[in-house]
């Protein structure tokens, strides 16, 4: 359980923090290309750092879960610093919205990162499956 939670947090942060940093550095004047390249670069950097330091890849399935779980919190959190909510009901509504995972897709559509979220949603499950499949074929090939 501890390892899964680690990959959820690290994966979500590696995806969303570059997007937040670029958006903040460019004062929210980010073009579509940059908005989608930053999260993908952060996720690729996570994979590279893990491979270089431990010769193991991240648990890509849990990294993808982190992208979806931390997505609404990351996108709403950035706007809360700029425009704090005026009423308690707004805070409760925002928290409830963040607990609904499909909100990541909706909010990513609104802020322009939908292409990187969709690309990650396709690529990471393939990466999660690939090492198991190749290890399985090596074991079968060695047994023959």
Q: Termini separation (Å)? A: 36 Å
**Percent strand:** under 5%
Helix/strand structural class: mainly alpha
Helix content: over 70%
Q: Count the E strands.
A: 0
Runs with pLDDT <50, length 5+?
Answer: 134-144
Main sheet makeup? none
Overall mean pLDDT: 83
Shape: globular
Number of helix segments?
6
Radius of gyration: 17 Å
User: What are the secondary-structure elements, in order, as H or E?
Assistant: HHHHHH
Task: Kindly summarize this structure in a few lines.
This protein is mainly alpha-helical and 144 residues long. The protein has helices at 2-25, 32-54, 60-82, 88-98, 103-111, 114-143. Mean pLDDT is 83; it is low at 134-144.
Protein model, in words:
With 144 residues, the protein is mainly alpha-helical. The protein is built from six helices and no strands. Residues 134-144 have low confidence and may be disordered.
Protein topology:
Elements: H1 2-25, H2 32-54, H3 60-82, H4 88-98, H5 103-111, H6 114-143
Comma- or semicolon-separated keywords:
144 residues; mainly alpha; 6 helices; disordered C terminus
